[in-house]
Amino acid sequence: xxxxxxxxxxxxxxxxxxxxxxxxxxxxxxxxxxxxxxxxxxxxxxxxxxxxxxxxxxxxxxxxxxxxxxxxxxxxxxxxxxxxxxxxxxxxxxxxxxxxxxxxxxxxxxxxxxxxxxxxxxxxxxxxxxxxxxxxxxxxxxxxxxxxxxxxxxxxxxxxxxxxxxxxxxxxxxxxxxxxxxxxxxxxxxxxxxxxxxxxxxxxxxxxxxxxxxxxxxxxxx
Amino acid sequence: xxxxxxxxxxxxxxxxxxxxxxxxxxxxxxxxxxxxxxxxxxxxxxxxxxxxxxxxxxxxxxxxxxxxxxxxxxxxxxxxxxxxxxx
Lengths: 222, 87
Hints:
The complex is a heterodimer of chains A (222) and B (87). Chain A is an all-alpha fold. Chain A folds into two domains: 2-165, no CATH class; 167-222, no CATH class. Helices cover 73% and strands 0% of the residues of chain A. Chain A contains eleven helices and no strands. In chain A, helix 1 (2-21) crosses helix 2 (26-36) and helix 7 packs parallel to helix 9 (150-165). Chain A is globular, with a radius of gyration of 19 Å. Chain B is mostly helical. Chain B has two domains: 1-36, no CATH class; 48-87. Helices cover 83% and strands 0% of the residues of chain B. Chain B contains four helices and no strands. In chain B, 49% of the residues are buried. The interface between A and B is large, with 92 and 60 residues.
């Protein structure tokens, strides 16, 4: 949990600072983080923020950038050990990238409990709000995260999580397909389409490689 | 924004109840997390520049041996050094 908390801090600060630069008050910035709780979507939306706000542009962009949540939720629903609608509703709201990825890993290791997910989800949620507030109040104090490599922390975390989810030789193909499709899509088209393209490619590769023997092909035919 | 984001988060929970069973479907669904993770970072790893690509490789190697926080530290440190060194 600590890596996710520390990595979220500079981004929370940045979201807060960007929001106030675009004219939001600190309270509005905090509210955005509290209601949306999706860093990448918040960055993209703030980039497009105009006065008066165009609801259609912001709403549509948000749906695209966050579309991965639909896939994440589908893969995660079966592992969450709570069946009440209200419980699932709250769980859905707290499902951010890091929370979901860590919960998936824990479930795979056989130990996902409601307490774990709740503790993780709530902590990261409050943490995000806190850092957004600090950033909003501090204004443009952080002017160049790239100098400190902060922008790479997000990527490094995901690399670590990918390594944790590795399941054998087939995974190599899935990851390669995702990377290739995402890169190709990003070169061809602006916007968040590359996420969808990469996800579809990776899932297709996995489905193609599943041949009734599970994920691992055996050496030598009968 | 909040409504759209929440919609994406909650719709997956509903969709899961209607998904087919079977080996291929299960394999596909299990591949969703890692596919999404890789897709999100692919442009920043392969389209950003040599510093990011090399730092990513270093982080990947670190990830096979070190805990997550150490991997992040190694990756961030590597990218800072490489960006300074490669201009």
